[in-house]
Amino acid sequence: MTAAPPPPTAVRAHVLIAVKDLDRAKTRLASRLDAERRTALVLAMLRDTLAAAGASEAVGEITVITPDRAVAAAAESAGAHWFPDRGGPGPDRLNAVLRSAAGAGGRGPVVALQGDLPCLTGRELTEALVAARPYRRAVVIDHHGTGTSALIVADPAEGLAPQFGPDSARRHIDSGATALAGHWPGLRLDVDTPDDLDAAAELGPGPATAEVLRTIGWRDPSRQC
Length: 225
Fold this sequence. Notes:
Layout: E1 13-18, H1 35-55, E2 59-66, H2 69-77, E3 81-84, H3 93-102, E4 110-113, H4 122-132, E5 137-141, E6 148-153, H5 168-174, E7 178-179, H6 185-188, H7 194-203, H8 207-216
Parallel strand pairs: 1-2, 1-4, 2-3, 5-7
Antiparallel strand pairs: 4-6, 5-6
Helix pairs in contact: 1-2, 1-8
């Protein structure tokens, strides 16, 4: 499926994707998957997210923020930039590294995007970016209704002002962001729990995630989104 092109005058966006150390990733799946399989799944979901973002005609640059060399290698192999996460521990680490990386882009919109969106399509991301253009800041709320799949800032000079963490959707809206109402099931479906992974397998993940799910025997997914 090809992405819908934006108007020719649009300035393309800089997408930021933050990914933590693989040994700390997706611990809520530990009841079903061991560390090796969780690592394979995280990298696969990142590859599918990067492929979808790269397929969006509204995206001009992608940067993956991570302290993990395996994640950095996956990003670079997909044609994305790597921004090293050298932040220390603390509850605001994710927001701090996003703020730092946001200042390293161009003059177009900045998007803080989750890296675990295996059903994301380039068309969905293009449509969300087009829908966000009238607003200074906008959010795509996740399928649970409490988290943030994407934070979109029209002008990087405004500052990203990320509020990721528990109940991030409400906190982004309270800080002035507008919630976008588009029907983008893949963009809204970030994967943290076994139920989320079941939903992704049902919706239809990208090829890298589908292959991992087949390998680990989760399901036999077919691409539907």
